[in-house]
Amino acid sequence: MFGLFPLHPMTLVQLAVFNTNTNQTVIQTYNKTTYDSCTVDDSLDTDTFQYNGGSNEFGSPTTIPVPLTIEGTQYYFSDADDGEQCQHGMAFELKVGHGLGLPPSLNQPPPPPYTPPPGPADDGQSPPVTVVTSPINDGMRIVANSCWLLLMVLVSVSLLV
């Protein structure tokens, strides 16, 4: 099974998606001779690529995505059973052209870059700071003064009597 799907809604790359199993391979080539022979034996590393399911489990269902990134004619075939499947029709040609771009609904300018909100107005002055200082043990001094006053009152009263 084969299908064409967008790689991502914001990119123009398409995928050829092959639903197969792990004992099958997908061959992508730009070489018509390799395609016609249904084998990769005489292909170059620069024009022929082999995709597999990436699993060691034999015969399990798998999906093989192949990115369509190069414009031009591409050939796909299965080389399973020494190319026998390809010789019996499991092969096709695909022409990849330049896309039309994004649809109008996605073709919008990007949002403006983020700018942080303005901070408080700066007139070159810091906000006023109130610092309250009090001597240490100020409360003890009041108590001590009260005691001294009481002592003086008592002494004065006792002198009067």
Automatic annotation (TrEMBL):
Know the name of this protein? Phytocyanin domain-containing protein
**Positions of the region Disordered?**
101-130
Judging by the UniProt lineage, the source's domain of life is: Eukaryota
**What Pfam families does the annotation carry?**
Cu_bind_like (PF02298)
InterPro entries named in the record: Cupredoxin, Phytocyanin_dom
Residues annotated as transmembrane = none
**Keyword Signal part of the UniProt annotation:** yes
Composition skew (Pro residues), residue ranges: 106-120
Q: Which residues form the Phytocyanin domain?
A: 1-98
Signal peptide boundaries: 1-15
Alphabetized SUPFAM superfamilies for the sequence? Cupredoxins
Keywords assigned by UniProt? Answer: Signal
A molecular-function term among this protein's GO annotations: electron transfer activity
